[in-house]
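Throughout this review, each integer encodes one residue's backbone shape. One record appears below.

===
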Amino acid sequence: MIAESMLKLAEHNSITTLMIGLQNLKNEHDSNEEEARIQALNTHCKTQFQNLVQQSQYVGDVFSMSFDTALVLVHDRFRMNVGGIPSLSFLIATRADTRGLEQMERADPKRPLYEREDASVLLLRVMDAAPLPNDREATQIRVQTAQSMNSPESDNWDSPEGMDGATAHLLSYAGLKCRVIGTFYLEQTKQNTQELAIKFGSDISNFYPNRGLKVYKPNSTALGLIVNYRDPLRDAEHQLTPEVTIGTIRYASTNRAFQGVSDVAACISPADLKSQKTAVFGMTRTGKSNTIKTIIKSVFDLRTQLNNPQLIGQLVFDVNGEYANENTQDKSGADLPDALKNIWKIHGAYYESHVVTYGIAQHPNDPNRILMKLNFHEEDNLQMGKEIINSALTADNVKFIQNFIQVEFIKPESSDKGATTRYKRRVLAYRALLVKAGLSTNIQPDITGLFNADLLKAMNDHSIEDSKYPAYRSAASAFSNKNVTWAHLSTAFESLYAFMTGSGKASYNTFEMKYINNTGGSGDAWADDDFKKILEMFSRSNGSRQIGEIAPQHTAQTSSDYAKDIYQHLVEGKLVIIDQSSGDYLINKSSAERVVQKVFNENQALFRKGHINLPEIIFYVEEAHNLLPADSSTDLKNIWVRTAKEGAKYRIGMVYATQEVSSIQKNILKNTSNWFIGHLNNTDETKELKKYYDFADFESSILRAQDKGFLRIKTLSNPYVIPAQIKRFELSATAEQS
């Protein structure tokens, strides 16, 4: 029994030992796997930070810090080594340089580097000089030395003859005041992976007053990463790639090659423009139009992508005709003039139909231009045309004009014969008024059943002694003539109004009372209020003349609506350019608003029906102060304001350009995500601009630098403003810098 028990115990101990051994092997394997994982993460972490931080770009150390500001101690030698430190340039401050990361890794090898608090890079912007404690003494030494070398024949006071090396070294230190823009740090792209992505936060999570940070000036590679940073999560959600190069980084008006930034590309993501508002501000001839052309081209080019072609409808309101026509600014030659309408030529003849031009008038160099004209007489266009007329007359406060504006042409149900007859009578009078105003038509008058026999008898039986009697009788004849002309009807309607309100008023009232009290009748007056308002326009000398001002928008040769046609082009992803350089200002303004209203209404209707993929459309408004409501306007129902406030929901974006920030209504500015700011020449404008993002940092530069194409850019996906020189818009393969 004892032997058997001993044998069983030995077997049990062997199994236990085996199990312990297997567990130890597993633990060792897991430990090795974890070490390998951490090592891979650390390797990737070092690579990512090495892309931002280069030891050769060292310039100094942070010696004082707050959540918003960092004071940096720099030395002339290090500044010279990196090509200088211009105002508003980017610097980075960190403990995560190569040596710092190695120290962190040795201190705690079991913890991934990216999780350490010090494994981050602060992004700084140089604002100005900062005082040092010994500045007063240093200034005194410099003055004394300069006094001792005060002659044109002597060397500069900082030469070895004027100042010993030790003193020169100590006085070469200076302080820089920098804005803390935010923090670059690393995070895993997915759980349990060895991939790390650079993230950016627009602040800092902590700071220590007695903890040093080395400061570096980014080289061209690192600067490219900084200025073109995009949040990877937003990129995945909004497809920010591909990006388009629109210029190069430029810190200052004094833009010298040795500063090492002129070859750093400044990029934008066309996706930032979709469903967003974009502002382009700057004085005349500072590159606004060039910038807009560059933006339009970047969006147009998306259709040629191999992997993910995107057709985005673009509508340009071309106030000066510089997008639709070749002009003196187009310098590429006759084969490929730089007018935007020729943008299709870059990609080949297939894309010619992707660009459509409209205008009030024909242009000799644009035979395919579509005229923005409407047949005001067409049944389906009656109310549209009336709204265009209303827009042109709105500013006139004369009572009969305001009464006429109130008239609407809403077709009644065909079953209501009385309302249908009144509607047809109004339409007949309205068409006659249009013809009198100079808007011709191929439609023939139809008076069937529109004029009561008792009314015509009353006009014929009126007092023969009235000087107006012949006119009344002639009108009655016209209203009973099936072959009557529009000219005769125009005269007849003028006489009818006189009969109703003038010398024939008593005769008309007698007829009216009989008509109202007629057994079996509706009890309504023969002439409704809208009909009377139209008739009054015939009696006023200015009535038809004022309507005639919109005649350039009318044609009898079409039955379609240009607003509907333009919307269809945009749905198809085409670039539509409306040349507004000719024609009356009010007509251009009203037609632009009408097109915008059409696009807004159509996309809104699709949204309300639950459509997921609404057409992507972007408006471009040059000289925006001509079309957009002024800052003093409080009309929140204006279609431009509604587009600015609600357009994103309906997939409508808007790019607007003008000289003055203050000229744009604040409701539009507050809903603007993308900003391109050139030279502004007064503090009233920069004061307004300072309300948005971090443009306050650039106020002085914006006021002073008048260089064409030198802009400060803030886009939706870029978390901070970058200064850039926009390249010249050219349709040739290579584009020079403007």
In short: The first strand starts at residue 58 and ends at 65. The radius of gyration is 38 Å. The CA atoms of residues 459 and 472 lie 5 Å apart.
